[in-house]
Amino acid sequence: MSSSYFLKRMAAGVWPAAVALVIALAHIPEFLHRLLDGDEAIYGTIAVLMNAGGSLYGAGGVDNKPPGIFWVYSLTFRVFGDYQMTAVHAAGFLAMAATCFLLFVITRDLAGRRAGLLAALFYGILTAAGNPRLLASNTEIFMMLPLTASVLLMLRRRWTWSGLMLVAAGTFRQPAAANLLLVPVAIAWLESLPPSRMAAAVRVTTGLVLGLILGAVVLMTTSSLEGFWRWTVQTLTGYASVNWTPAFVWARAKDSIVPFVIDMAVFWIAAIGLASRWRELDARVRLMVLWLIAGMAGSLAGGHLSWHYFIQAMGPLAVLSAIAFDRFRPRRLVAGAAVLGIVIPATAWWAFDATADPLTYDFSAPVPQHQQVADYIRTHTSPSDRVFIWGDWPAVYVESDRVMASRFPGFLRGFARGSDLPPDNWDTAPDVWPLLASDLDTHPPALIVDTATAGWSDFSKYQMSHYPVLARLVATTYHQVATVDGVVIYARNA
Q1: Which of 13, 119, 159, 353 has the highest local Cβ count within 10 Å?
Q2: What is the pLDDT of residues 101-112, one digit of tens each?
Q3: What region, left, alpha or beta, does residue 124 occupy, with left being phi > 0 and alpha being psi -120 to 50 degrees?
Q4: Which of 134, 139, 204, 128 is nearest to 166 (CA)?
C-alpha cells in the first residue's frame, strides 16, 4: 500500500483521538473528589447494605429511585470493594463515553462524520460544564446510555430493541418515559405503509412488555418487587407536588436551568436555529427536535431542577447543535466567537469543580465540616460497627467507611427543608418509623450523629426530640460523648 494511504488513515484517526482527549480532560475533576454529590452517598450506602445481604427497598436500603443505579453501584463495590467511589466514577465516565459514541453514530447517519464527531464532543463538554453534581455518577448519566441506544435503534427501525432499551433507561430514572412520546411519531414518519406501521407498533410494544417483564422478574427474584412499588411508584405524586411549590422551583431553577441555558447558550442558539428551519428538515432530524423537547419535559417533570437532571436533554441538544454547525458553516469570526462561548464557561467550571468541595460549595458560611465528623466516627468505632446519622448527610457514612444502622440513608430528602411546610415527606411517612425502630433494634448503632443541632442542610427545625422513636432511644440507651462542628454525637451506654 502507498504511503498516502497510511497518511490518510492516520489523518482520519487524529480527529476522533482529539475529541476523546478533550472529553477526557473536561472530566478530570470527577476523579479529584471522593464524592461529587450527596446522591452518590445515598446510592453507595444502599449498595453496601445490599451487598451485606439486604433486599433493595427493604432492609437493604430505601430510596425512591428505580433499581438500575443501585445494581450498578452494588456490582462495582462487589468487584472493587465497599465505598470505592473512584471505581464508581470510572463507571460513570465509561457510560458517558459510550453515550458519546452512540451520539456520534446517530449524527453521522444524519449529517456525516464531521457532524458526528461534533455531537460526541458537545455531549462530553455539556456533561462536564457545570457544578460538581453534573459530573457525579448519577442516575441520568447511566440512563442516557440505553436511552440514546433506544433512539438510534428507533432511527434504524429496530423497533423491538428500541422498546427494550427504553425500558432499560427507565430502570435508572422514571422520566425516561418521556421518550414514549417519540414512538408513535417515529412510526408514522419512518414507516411509509399502514401494514408496516402496524407491524412496527407491535414490535415496539413487544420490546416494552418484554423489558417490563424482565425487570419484574429480577425484582421478584431479589425480593424487591413490593418495596419497589411502595417506594418508587406510590411516592411520585407527593414528591412532585412538594417540588412544584413556586418558591422552591425558583430557588432550584436559578441554580440549574438558568446557568445551563445561559452558559451553554452557543449550543441552544445553534439547535434552535436549526429547528426554526423545520420545513427544510427531513423526518429523522425533525425527530431529533422532538427528542430535545421530550428531554426537557423529562428534565422538568419532577420539579426538583438539579443541574444533572438536564443531562436528559443534553444528548439531543448535542446532536442538533452539531448538525447546525456542520450545515450552516459559520464564518470564521462567528465560529471563533462560538468556540470562545463554549470554551470560556467550560474552563471556568472546570477550575471550580477541581477546587471546590462538591458537598458544601453552595452552602452559606459557615459550611459543614463533614470530614471532621467523619474522622471522629472512624477513630471512635471499628469497621464492624454501624452508625446512625439523623439528617440528610449520608456522605458521612461514606467518608467514615461505616455501614448505616438503618435502611434510610437520610430524611426529608428532596423536601424544602427550612420552609413552613409540615415535614410530611415520603421518607417520614407513618410506616417509616416502625421500620426505623426495627432497624435500630436489629443493628444497634455504636454512635448516633445528630446533624440537626448544627443546622446542616437546613435541618435545625427537625430536632430528634420531635420524633418519639429517636427521642426515646437516645434518652434510654445513649449518652452524649462529643460535639464536632455543632454536630452532637451520642454513644451507647456501657
Answers
A1: 119
A2: 999 999 999 999
A3: alpha
A4: 204
Give the strand pairing for 386-390 and 403-404.
parallel
Give the integer Cα–Cα distance in Å for 376 and 361: 22
pLDDT value of residue 248: 61
Q: What is the value of pTM for the model shown?
A: 0.93
Ramachandran region of residue 35, left (φ > 0), alpha (ψ -120 to 50) or beta?
beta
Look at residue 12 and tell me whether its pLDDT is greater than 90: no
- The pLDDT value recorded for residue 241 is 56
Which percentage of the chain shows pLDDT scores above 70? 93
**For a pLDDT cut of 90, what percent of the chain falls above it?**
79
- In single-letter form, the type of residue at position 236 comes to L
Pick the closest to residue 224 from 381, 60, 5, 86 (CA basis): 60
332 to 118, 265, 336, 343: CA distances (angstroms): 17, 19, 6, 16
CA gap 431, 399 in Å, rounded: 29
Give the residue extent of every domain in the chain. Answer: 3-355, 370-492
CA distances from 76 to 66, 185, 462 (A): 17, 38, 35
HSE of 167, CA atoms in CB hemisphere, 13 A: 18
| Residue in the structure block whose three cell numbers are 462536564 | 128
Would you place residue 148 in the very low, low, confident or very high pLDDT band (cuts 50, 70, 90)?
A: very high
Rounded CA separation 295/291 (Å) = 6
